[in-house]
Amino acid sequence: MKEYKKYRKRLPLSLLEEVKEKTKDMPEARVNKILKEVHKEYRKAKVQAGESVGLVSAESLGEPGTQMTLNTFHFAGVAEMNVTVGLPRIIEILDGRKKIKTPMMEVYLKPPYNKGKDIKKLALSIKETLLKEVMSEISVDLANSSIEIILDKEKVKDIGATAGSIVKALEKQAKGTNVKKKEDTIIIKPKSKENHVAEAYKLKEKIKNIYIKGVKNIKQVLPVKRGNEFIIITSGSNLPEILEMKEVDTSRTVTNDIYEISRILGIEAARAVVINEVSKVIEAQGLNVDIRHIMLIADTMCFSGDLKGITRYGVVSEKASVLARASFETPIKHIINAALVGEVDELNSVVENVMLNQAVPVGTGLPGLVTKIK
Amino acid sequence: MAKRKRKNIVDVKNHVLIPKHKKLSEKDKKELFEKYNITLKELPKIPLDDPALADIDAKEGDVIKITRESLTTGKSIFYRGVISG
Fold this sequence. Notes:
The complex is a heterodimer.
Chain A: H1 2-7, H2 13-22, H3 28-45, H4 53-75, H5 86-94, E1 104-108, H6 119-126, E2 129-130, H7 131-134, E3 135-141, E4 146-151, H8 153-158, H9 163-173, E5 177-182, E6 185-190, H10 197-208, E7 211-213, E8 220-226, E9 229-235, H11 239-244, E10 254-255, H12 258-264, H13 267-284, H14 291-301, H15 322-326, H16 331-341, H17 350-355
Antiparallel strand pairs in A: 1-9, 1-10, 2-7, 3-4, 4-6, 5-6, 8-9
Chain B: E1 20-23, H1 26-36, E2 45-47, E3 63-68, E4 76-83
Parallel strand pairs in B: 2-4
Antiparallel strand pairs in B: 1-3, 3-4
């Protein structure tokens, strides 16, 4: 296996493994020859210094993007849950939006829960439950200007709560009121002495939306079978709280909210999710973009250690050149600000040199000429 | 930008999305800078309070070596310079 060792530093791992696999029972001399050829081809395939990879990436992703616009509507909406797909999703990811349109999580479970044990109960316990979902009746008592709530016993049992725990939740969240439980009804009375009926009606609307149980922001849950285990797909995302649950497999549970990932799992995880999410959309549209282009974009977005979108507030604002920033969006703002602080443009990059009609530092324009004068 | 909340009660370092992070020794760091003729400034950054650095004793100015499972090359190595959050 000496031959392989020699090339370990020179060839990428996956390529070396492939050669190893295909030359399993060949004589050493032949393997050596093959490796040499592979290395030659590999070097030819490498990107040359000065190649404008960013431009190529932009074109490679931009062209399929023009086709996506038309397709978007036909693909919108996956069987059970509505998910942003197509161009709107790509824009959302690359802009690095903090609030995405349809946050979603894939919650993996630890055994024995991943084999379907109590899956329905578990799913319901994750879902955010509001008071209005577990009550069967709510009315305003005009005489006492208080509110009476009748709970739906079955629904309360389904989410694993009790009347007592609901009263506690109400006491905690509905401030300035007295909460009393009388048999099957819960009576809520405002503490203030002036008993306005209008106030009671206002309170009623507020109380309907009081959070009772579950994980906040999880609007919908859907247990599904993937491979040979059960996972829970949720609409709405709350990674930190889900990860704290003891039934959840913390090593595989993911969300499609990239900003949340960068906050909870760090910048490297965010990079991985950007790549996954973008390639997922492109694949779903039946398009074909080389993964390297997407990787380059993801690396750019995560360069500063913080997730930055490809917008004038994100990666573009980090450019060193004033002219390059001005050429993207809001040129007057950038030029005025640069003039105020006396910024210097080193003309090291492409756009500013195009503006000044000079050779751009790309490809053959990159190397300079140094002469030795005798 | 709003200060990030980075108080993790749960241990996330085993997550599949987080590649292996390792701090470079001073010697390796110097070698790296010499090999590529760069300074810390040119490296991509990682904030000090990044969750992936939770059990790495890193300080500002360190270099973190990240071993990624790459989709194209099987394994790829990446470096990030530590900056204060």
